[in-house]
Structure to design on (167 residues):
C-alpha cells in the first residue's frame, strides 16, 4: 500500500510518499516541498499547490492520503491560512477518490519520535533514520513523511484490532 503524507501550508506544502511492504515495514519512495512564490496572492499560491499535489498523486499513485489535522494557533490568520491549504489537500485527495486519514501533530510526533512534544529536528532525525536516507529531508518534507509513517504504524494497529489480535 502506497501512502502519501501531506504537511499542508500556503507557503510551503510538504509531501512524502512511502510504500508499506509488510506489517510494520515500509520503503521510502519520494518527498518534496511545493513552494509557491511568497509575493503571489493567496489564491494563486493555493492554485499552484493544488496543481502540484495533483501531479504528485498522478505520478506516484498513492492508495491512501494522511494529512495533519488542524491544530489551534494563537494567530487566527495563520490558522485560517493552514485551513485553506488543508482544504486544497483534501480536495485533491477527494478528486482522486483517495481515502483520507487525519492525525493530530502530537500523535504524529509520538508515533515517529516517541514523544508528543518532540521538536521538528527530532522528528526529522527519526524520519531520516526510519527511511534510511543519507541526508535529512527539508523540514516540511520530513513532517509529511512523518505523517505517512504515522499512518503506516497506525494502520497496523487498526488491522490487528479488526482481526481480533491485540498485543
Amino acid at each position: 500500500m502506497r501512502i502519501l503524507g501531506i504537511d499542508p501550508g500556503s507557503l510551503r506544502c510538504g509531501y512524502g510518499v512511502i510504500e508499506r511492504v509488510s506489517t510494520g515495514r515500509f520503503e521510502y519512495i519520494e518527498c518534496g516541498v511545493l513552494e509557491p512564490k511568497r509575493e503571489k496572492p493567496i489564491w494563486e499560491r493555493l492554485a499552484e499547490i493544488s496543481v502540484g499535489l495533483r501531479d504528485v498523486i498522478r505520478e506516484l499513485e498513492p492508495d491512501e492520503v494522511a494529512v495533519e489535522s488542524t491544530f489551534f494557533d494563537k494567530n487566527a490568520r495563520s490558522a485560517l491560512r493552514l485551513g485553506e491549504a488543508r482544504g486544497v489537500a483534501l480536495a485533491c485527495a477527494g478528486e482522486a477518490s483517495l481515502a483520507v486519514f487525519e492525525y493530530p501533530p502530537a500523535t504524529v510526533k509520538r508515533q515517529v519520535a516517541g514523544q508528543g512534544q518532540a521538536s521538528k529536528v527530532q522528528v526529522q532525525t527519526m524520519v531520516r533514520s526510519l527511511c534510511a536516507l543519507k541526508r535529512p529531508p527539508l523540514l516540511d518534507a520530513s513532517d509529511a513523511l512523518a505523517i505517512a509513517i504515522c499512518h503506516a504504524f497506525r494502520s497496523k494497529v487498526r488491522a490487528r484490532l479488526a482481526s481480533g489480535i491485540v498485543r
